[in-house]
């Protein structure tokens, strides 16, 4: 196959990109997305501060632009994200107890409902663990306790039963304290029937990343009965070292039957959120980098 999406499809996987509505006027950006990729994650447009800037006032327009282009091209869409401690509007921070629970539930119901049947997988909860494997002590955790997470998954399941429901996090690129904390939560959810279908591994990496237990980590989650996905891949660096890290991540996903797809966090270094790290597969002029060839060959 001669494109990333077609190569991934040979093994039944998708190959996506994070896309920003603000760049949809750049024809090289849109063309590269349409040619090379067969899935998308809106980079910011489905986050709480964008979709519900005031309580129960919804702004779906920016993400709708991405979703409609994706659907017209037959791409799958990853929804990102319902419950996260960042990019959350200020009004949520003023709430407590049942009022806070109701706001989270309404947020999930309205947003999941808007795109019901159109989302392959939702990142229901994002980045809710500390590096030491305990729950992140952000205000929702402090006010509602551990239960906010399973409540979010149950609400999302009812709102869009066809979407796979994921937990998503970073610095989980091997067997470590953080990934083990998440692993224990997923095992607990599965044993109690809390609806969870997948775990996302963001994989914001540097070219020297130690990936010695990367595949084994994906596999131990898969063995719990969930899919795994590489959801926000980018690798700071350049040349053959960067390419080797991209290759290793791709090979690890391909080696795990339940690893269903890979999404780099953008297309071109020109627009990466990691300015200066040149972490993506296309350079600032949309030329394919060594990392691109390494991934295509590994798929
Ligand atoms: C980043 C976006 O890429 C930036 O444009 C934005 O300013 C901040 O958020 N983990 C996540 C993503 O789950 O949502 C973040 O995206 C990167 C880290």
UniProtKB/TrEMBL annotation:
Record-annotated membrane-spanning stretches: none
Main subcellular location: secreted
Annotated Gene Ontology cellular component terms: extracellular region
Location of this chain's protein in the cell: Secreted
GO molecular function, one term: endo-1,4-beta-xylanase activity
Domain GH10: 1-298
UniProt keyword list: Carbohydrate metabolism, Glycosidase, Hydrolase, Polysaccharide degradation, Secreted, Signal, Xylan degradation
Single GO BP term: L-arabinose metabolic process
Catalytic residue positions: 232
Keyword Hydrolase tagged: yes
Family: Belongs to the glycosyl hydrolase 10 (cellulase F) family.
Name under which the protein is recorded: Beta-xylanase
Lineage: Bacteria, Bacillati, Actinomycetota, Actinomycetes, Pseudonocardiales
């Amino acid at each position: 196959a001669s494109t990333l999406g077609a190569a991934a499809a040979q093994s039944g996987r998708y190959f996506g990109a994070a896309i920003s509505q603000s760049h949809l006027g750049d024809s090289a950006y849109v063309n590269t997305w349409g040619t090379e990729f067969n899935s998308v994650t809106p980079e910011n447009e489905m986050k709480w501060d964008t979709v519900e800037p005031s309580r129960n006032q919804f702004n779906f327009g920016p993400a709708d632009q991405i979703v409609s282009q994706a659907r017209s091209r037959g791409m799958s869409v990853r929804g990102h994200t319902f419950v996260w401690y960042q990019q959350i509007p200020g009004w949520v921070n003023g709430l407590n107890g049942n009022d806070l629970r109701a706001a989270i539930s309404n947020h999930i119901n309205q947003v999941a409902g808007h795109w019901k049947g159109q989302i392959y997988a939702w990142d229901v909860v994002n980045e809710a663990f500390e590096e030491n494997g305990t729950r992140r002590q952000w205000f929702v955790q402090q006010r509602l306790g551990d239960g906010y997470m399973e409540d979010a998954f149950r609400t999302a399941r009812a709102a869009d039963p066809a979407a796979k429901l994921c937990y998503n996090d970073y610095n989980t690129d091997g067997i470590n304290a953080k990934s083990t904390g998440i692993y224990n939560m997923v095992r607990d959810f599965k044993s109690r029937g809390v609806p969870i279908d997948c775990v996302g591994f963001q994989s914001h990496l540097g070219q020297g990343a130690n990936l010695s237990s990367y595949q084994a980590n994906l596999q131990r989650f898969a063995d719990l009965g969930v899919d795994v996905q590489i959801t926000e891949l980018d690798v700071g660096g350049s040349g053959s070292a960067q390419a080797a890290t991209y290759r290793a991540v791709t090979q690890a996903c391909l080696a795990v039957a339940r690893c269903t797809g890979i999404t780099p966090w953008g297309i071109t270094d020109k627009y990466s959120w990691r300015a200066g790290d040149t972490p993506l597969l296309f350079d600032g002029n949309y030329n394919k980098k060594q990392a691109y060839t390494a991934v295509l060959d590994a798929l």
